[in-house]
Amino acid sequence: MASVHRLDPMSRVPDETTVYGAWERFVQGEDDIRGVRPEVAISWHRCRDQYRVDPGLTEAPVAVAEVEHTLEHDVVFAELGFRAASVAHEVANVGGIVTVADATGRVLAEWGDPTTRKLAAEANLATWFCWSEQATGTNGMGTALETHAPVLIRGAEHWCQAFHDWTCAGVAVRDVVTRDPIAVLNISCWRSDLPGSAGAWLSNAATRTQCTLRQRAQDGSAELIAAFNHARSRTGVALAAVDPAGRVVIADDTASILLGVPSSTPAKDPAVRWNPGLPELIRTARYAAKQASRNPDWVGTTQVFTHLSDEPTSVTFRPVFLAGHLAGNLISFGVAEGEQLPRGDGTGSGTNRGQPSRIVAMRDNRMVLLRLPEVSFAESEGNDVWLSTDQGRLRAASASLDKLEHEQGDAGFLRVHRQYVVNLGRIREVERRLKGELMLVMDDGANTMVPVSRRNAPAVRRALDI
After folding, report:
1. For the whole model, what pTM was predicted?
2. In this protein, which residues make up the domain named HTH LytTR-type (predicted)?
3. Domain ranges of the chain
4. CATH superfamily assigned to domain 59-196
5. pLDDT tens digits, residue range 387-410?
6. Residues with Cβ < 8 Å from 32, sequence gap 6 or more?
């Protein structure tokens, strides 16, 4: 591995040895940004190539969207607001400010040094303005919402030049079930570094809030299991209970076969729930959760493909609540009751909107932007995802095979095994083994053979029409 020389993000010298110099080259269209931290470089690519944020922007825009906040979100905002207010005096003593924003990047509250708050107001770093990456480029709040780790953005690492005087650190609080962001906590300082305790304080605040959410999720699991047992005693249809992310909490014998999950084994911990590996059903479950959160009496039905079946099956979703909080849905198989849900891309999930047309990989300290046809397949290995590409084997910038599947599922990429996602357009041959197992021979130069798991085989056959 080549050594990485980190550039000084606070320097304003416009040459090749500063982040500012790298930023200047990048906004002009060059891709060589060696020395810039990978998480910042990836954010810059999103800002330039996906969101097309003007680097000359001088202030954040007004947050125009009115977001529907659930009871779960209100709990998070109250918790973060309490923690931010408790540390506001300490942050103010070093000339800093603390902000809490929602999942859209809309600032909800602000505390801290009055002088710094006046400077922040000139850039609209204030309540009711939007600091998502899509609106204002790389910054502590927006970039934290895009990632699953705390972020530090200093000086010229900000995408917009007008914000190069700022240093900020942010951490997002995410729903422990769906992993979607709920809120973000941020500390900002003008022309100075953050206090040494900032990182630890942010992480501690997020961790404590996540603990509250985890306990609520476990209580929700218990309520789902109770509702499942009650419904099972009153009906003979195949039945399962899923959380708002579409993961299975419990399923009876028949439903477990259809979903490809263990039978009658409750998964109370949100971290170890069963993934059915059925993208259409997962998208529908998420859509059903959104509908139910708006209308507690909502019931919906549609048809979805299941494992070991070449024909779609009717399913009905019924929401389960605990103290006003949506715990998940009961799914009845072979039953069609309630509102008819749109199928496929019509679920309103927005899976196609804003998805990247390239996959980002890493080679030493340089980012490689791959066109989708250049990628043959992706393989998880430990904590990394490796891509088989026309440029050789490269480590993906994303460490999640699930995320790659979600982002590229509508672009011809399919999960065929818990360790593999393949580009359907790069399958050269399909080999059938003696016991019916499928092996995919990939068009990657080495004719790599990728296994297909039993529960993913029906989806592969449908996708390839075999």
Report:
1. 0.70
2. 359-466
3. 59-196, 219-347, 358-464
4. GAF domain (3.30.450.40)
5. 999 989 998 887 778 888 877 877
6. 25, 366
